Amino acid sequence: MNIMNVLIISAHPDDEVLGMGGTIKKMSKQGHNLHLCVVTEGASAQYLDKKMIEVRKKSCVKAGEFLGISSFNFLDFPDMGLEAIPRLQIIRKLENIIKKINPEIIFTTPKNDLHLDHKLVHESTVIACRPTKNKIKKLLCYEIPSPLINQFNPNIYENIELEIEDKINSFQFYESEIEEFPHPRSIESIRAFSKVRGVQSGFKNAEGFSLIQSFQN
Amino acid sequence: MNIMNVLIISAHPDDEVLGMGGTIKKMSKQGHNLHLCVVTEGASAQYLDKKMIEVRKKSCVKAGEFLGISSFNFLDFPDMGLEAIPRLQIIRKLENIIKKINPEIIFTTPKNDLHLDHKLVHESTVIACRPTKNKIKKLLCYEIPSPLINQFNPNIYENIELEIEDKINSFQFYESEIEEFPHPRSIESIRAFSKVRGVQSGFKNAEGFSLIQSFQN
Amino acid sequence: MNIMNVLIISAHPDDEVLGMGGTIKKMSKQGHNLHLCVVTEGASAQYLDKKMIEVRKKSCVKAGEFLGISSFNFLDFPDMGLEAIPRLQIIRKLENIIKKINPEIIFTTPKNDLHLDHKLVHESTVIACRPTKNKIKKLLCYEIPSPLINQFNPNIYENIELEIEDKINSFQFYESEIEEFPHPRSIESIRAFSKVRGVQSGFKNAEGFSLIQSFQN
Amino acid sequence: MNIMNVLIISAHPDDEVLGMGGTIKKMSKQGHNLHLCVVTEGASAQYLDKKMIEVRKKSCVKAGEFLGISSFNFLDFPDMGLEAIPRLQIIRKLENIIKKINPEIIFTTPKNDLHLDHKLVHESTVIACRPTKNKIKKLLCYEIPSPLINQFNPNIYENIELEIEDKINSFQFYESEIEEFPHPRSIESIRAFSKVRGVQSGFKNAEGFSLIQSFQN
Amino acid sequence: MNIMNVLIISAHPDDEVLGMGGTIKKMSKQGHNLHLCVVTEGASAQYLDKKMIEVRKKSCVKAGEFLGISSFNFLDFPDMGLEAIPRLQIIRKLENIIKKINPEIIFTTPKNDLHLDHKLVHESTVIACRPTKNKIKKLLCYEIPSPLINQFNPNIYENIELEIEDKINSFQFYESEIEEFPHPRSIESIRAFSKVRGVQSGFKNAEGFSLIQSFQN
Amino acid sequence: MNIMNVLIISAHPDDEVLGMGGTIKKMSKQGHNLHLCVVTEGASAQYLDKKMIEVRKKSCVKAGEFLGISSFNFLDFPDMGLEAIPRLQIIRKLENIIKKINPEIIFTTPKNDLHLDHKLVHESTVIACRPTKNKIKKLLCYEIPSPLINQFNPNIYENIELEIEDKINSFQFYESEIEEFPHPRSIESIRAFSKVRGVQSGFKNAEGFSLIQSFQN
């Protein structure tokens, strides 16, 4: 297996762990170079205290380093406010990150999600990755367990039997975000989703992904 | 709450437990009259031994009685062979059952399922329930956890926190069908699906349903 | 039947009558507490005369009182201008109304509607009702007959044979909005839609709804 | 306007009148040559009396002649039994009719219909019309009002203000099939559907169609 | 055939040629009056040099005149910036153009396109054409070959065997936009798309369209 | 790269070449072991002469050997007659082939295809590959250019710049099936589709695939 540059794009700090913490750890163990780009600051819509922006960034870096991510890019767009930003501005920032990191594979947020930030990060990523602009080999989206109605039907399942505990441990760095079950941001919820995706793929624990496009040379 | 006649239609013995065992128990505790109709014998495609047909029927009756089902109708169509039966024949049999039981609410198998038996039972039920023929008030489909690709997006969630253990106990009557996790017919799979549907609805354990039609007088 | 707090959310004054005037009257006769929230002022994009905003509000209150609505909340967002408002602002306002009224059931505008106001009110309602924030038991959308292409496929039909005349009478309070048939805001159009939804459900007159989510404890 | 050969394909006698009786009359007044092909005998699944097959054929011819249809082709496949006929056999019969009539435009039954006969006639027509085999210029499907769930979203609306009474009069030839409102095969249902499609297109009465394919030389 | 007023709406100068250059030429030869409305200036997001706006306009006029377009309307909204413009403003401008030109048929950009400008021009056109406002007889969208994921499934195919060279020649006026194959804006790409749409329709070269709505009096 | 067992499933002899001849050659050059399974005899519905069954098989073997396929399995189900075969029988045959070949990756026919044989081979393959039965790592479907309406939206593109001539040469072994352009089974059609898929992926020639499921250990 060749060593790849991997770019993970999330809308808020913690999307990357909830969505693909196990797969991040797995890719890290395989020796790939992992880079994270977080599009919004992920706090201002939920907390009045501005310090929470820094708190979540610190959680993100700690969790990411634990999983093996080597670089962190925070675009600092407003939480739950992406639809008010000119789309071109988001796309340009993503294009710059992509230029800098030169990834062969990109993971982004899911498409059919009522959470606008997830949807807009998804759409902006797809445009930033158009084949006339870059030579990204593979673009996928991960799943963000949500209390909102969405329709995520994975077609790629990654076995994370050996990484499920690391996924949970990394989420524990997001102290401010952990909730009680049955909240989607609870330990027990992470375990249950991981088992359900496992049942669908014949593994004990799995993470589901949906392939957007793959260009095979 | 009025006491209702409830008809549950399954394609194979065990669909009803896997799909809505918790809700069956819950409706039973509420005093409703529960009737089961199993469309195929559910064994001949999987077992060479013809006795297995009787084995699965007995499991079905035991599990059903445990959950509070009072009548059992086995249509005995061939397992994994519904597409070779004239559709009108399946519809007529369902119409007869519906006439006999006179239910106000019917639960059936899911629609977008690659398992043809599930799909055809679904379609035949919908036709047997058309409003010019009957006065069924409510028609829903339950979810059948499956290793096959399907797209079940529930819009009704039933809290089964108090019934999850009964659901699991009732499934244990299907001795021949229980498999090891991560098979979808394992105890741990049932628990994980019930938690994931719970996360989406704010309950600790839930079963998901999709409303097909409701006629409110 | 328990007495419920019901919240009806409309994008413009008259959506609630065109969409579910019969069902509002029916729920009122059943003794439920009915509350209306109108998201935009519904006039500024169509009339130069600013007074029309007040005219439409007065029509709304008269029509609503006739149907049995007991409280009216006007959010006064700009007519045909919701996409320019930060989404979070709309959601927060709806969350406040929901907190104040504490409804068990919410009705909102349809989803697949080319009229952006209808679509955005729908999406904002769904987010404001997420199960981690509230304990709304049932969320539905009603149908708004439209000259624009849309795809409303109801799964709930409410018999309004006894309320169709009340529906029409209540719409007559919206003097400025009544048009000649075959305009969708004409008396004859209301009657025709009500009969077509009736044909599909076995009633003489019906209103169609689509269930978004229901959480049954 | 050039005089065209028009082929109307229905699954059962009366589909053509319910679906497009007004448009048939209109095309007849415009001087086109109209041909009908009815795929099933349309009676055996609903009536024990075999004579009903002839009764429905006679109704069909009378109604059709009233509307201006000049030739009638009855393929006599079993009512509600098309799924048991080898598909190739249905396609071959349709190909023969198409060869004989050499139509420039074909109308067929709708696609997303739970009534299997409608769905299979639709699919077989599309295959019989593939461009490598024929030079059909235009293929459309009409709408069959139904108590079953379907999703017919027309993109072509034909003004039938001048033909609505002819449509209703022609349906009266199907004495055995007329039902009381709110049955979909009632006079009042025909009027209501025609008004609703009118509201969506700015006409007083309209019939809706969906364009499948058009090849413009 | 009657002489018609035809309005072609594009998001950027060159959409009209790439999408339907052959059909424009064909309609011109048939004697129809052809009018173009370009919604954005189509340059500012791609070129720093402001002069490029004029360059592209000049290319557009030259290409259009070559194809037989007689009037050009440039709305000058910002390139890749339509989502930040109040939607009502775009709709009003289109309504004004429609009022001025009084077309019987309108062509617009495709719907399911990740390029936001294409999507928003499509949606705004559909609203500007609602039957209560105008009497547009026919509304279609053309296809814009794109490196982005989209799902254009034409249902109308126009034979352009005699116009394919004119299409290519007209595109050559857009000197700044021509790219090397396999870029979608290359000569060889235009030829390949035209052949593929031809294969699907039995012509040697074709352009694909999707019918949005047609109102036939 | 590891050497893999690859199974290609086609409905008729020539699907495999039209759909993925370039990719077959490419995988062969990479050293993978390639196996073909053809589900129907592919001739009886189109030719009266029974000898054509053998003719097409011989073409298939010659074309396949040219591309590097090492084993050929002909299931000999009737051409255009799969819907009349008990589905379980098709599935069992595919399961046996899968057991024998033990592939890590399977390619099959597309899903949303009006050609029933393509659709049923697709569905049967998916069921035969369910994770509780096998450990297939990857399941994809290829594209079959068709005069029938279908909706193939690839998410995987394979660069076949170096294999396009081999693809065309291999198709020439199917002498009886080659047609004149613009027939989909013409040389010029193969070239045009390959360029269009190239435009969408940034290659000069490409084949498009859709990922059904991938299980990554």
Structure characterization notes:
The structure is a homohexamer of 217-residue chains. Chain A has 217 residues and is α/β, with parallel strands linked by helices. Chain A is built from 6 helices and 7 strands, in the order βαβαβαβαββααβ. A 7-stranded mixed β-sheet of chain A has the order 3-2-1-4-5-7-6, with helices on both faces. Chain A is globular. The interface between B and C is medium-sized, with 19 and 19 residues. Strand 6 (156-159) of chain A pairs parallel with strand 7 (206-216) of chain F, so a sheet runs across the interface.
Task: Kindly summarize this structure in a few lines.
Chain A has 217 residues and is α/β, with parallel strands linked by helices.
Descriptive keywords:
6 helices, globular, homohexamer, 37% helix
Strand order of the largest sheet of chain A: 3-2-1-4-5-7-6
Helix fraction of chain A, binned, reads 25-40%
Q: Give a quick account of the main beta sheet of chain A: strands, pairing sense, barrel closure.
A: 7 strands, mixed
The most extensive interface between chains reads:
A-B, 26 and 26 residues
Contiguous low-pLDDT stretches of chain A (5 residues minimum) are: none
Gap between N and C termini of chain A: 16 Å
- The strand count of chain A comes to 7
